[in-house]
């Protein structure tokens, strides 16, 4: 790999490592989000608590995490700058078109801007009469200015991307199993930039129509038609179940097995919680973001395997939609409405084996830096433990601790 390519890969890996803290809180909140939903416990405040880590809030968590992680000395000002930059960029962009939704991509962009600008301007000198705004205090200001410009740029360009994907999705659905496969690949590849929801909206909520013979109500979209009893619906969602319930948990197992021995205790708990969340609720973003930037090649492989799963499910006439995501809860809830739904379990077993061995092969063959394999992973944990002990000693003996200024 060229020196430039190595720098790019190293930078992506720094972003990936910066996402570890935000990702760590998602499994528990994801379970709360699903359990509090209307078709389960129907307790809005539980669902609301779980939703704290998703939607725009997930983008904000990413902005803070990346801004903090990319800044020198992991300074909190970088995280604050990332958050402020995201809010400015989002508000400016949506002022052009309220339908603009950049998803987690907006948080990643703002976090990168905040972290990099912190490193560049943390020691900046300003005229004496503006001295209060010098140094680190200047970072959120310049980050807001840069993100304002980015907000204008995305405000003009993002609707064009969305419209293009909308039209492409309508063409794609006419291609049968091949179209389902292409949709599956793009659905995953577009997650990093937040445009997957555009294709999902077309296919899940606009594709086709079905009139309920009893109530006369008209349902549109693959999911809505399935829930209304349309026997032809549910073909664009069934293929997600094997990936979410089996494939990605197997990827977690492979990444755990490939982690350095001294790091397995640290990453083991994380991978277990991520895998269980995916199996039970179908929430997979925490897993995907765990290796998306650290090992982009694995994410491309994952996208291709998702496309294959959707194409196979379509070809085998498997019908099973979901109201939340492709996890065990929705599988059980809608099992009675589906067709050939047991095939999903067989496909899942195949997906588990394929994901496990493919991830193992690529991680070892190309020495991919998945969680627990990074060169400085153990150093970071030692630093964290040292800082924790230092804080603990200072609390036990305040006279020897530092002062707040």
TrEMBL record:
UniProt keyword list: Cell membrane, Membrane, Phosphotransferase system, Sugar transport, Transmembrane, Transmembrane helix, Transport
Main localisation: membrane
Membrane-topology descriptor: Multi-pass membrane protein
Residue spans crossing the bilayer: 15-33, 45-70, 100-118, 138-156, 168-186, 239-258, 265-283, 289-311, 318-336, 342-363
Localization annotation: Cell membrane
GO cellular component terms, A-Z: plasma membrane
GO BP annotations, alphabetical order: N-acetylglucosamine transport; phosphoenolpyruvate-dependent sugar phosphotransferase system
Region (Disordered): 374-405
PTS EIIC type-1 domain segment(s): 6-375
Acidic residues bias (residue ranges): 375-385
GO molecular function: protein-N(PI)-phosphohistidine-sugar phosphotransferase activity; protein-phosphocysteine-sugar phosphotransferase activity
Protein name: Probable PTS system enzyme
Organism of provenance: Clostridium perfringens (strain 13 / Type A)
Organism phylogeny: Bacteria, Bacillati, Bacillota, Clostridia, Eubacteriales
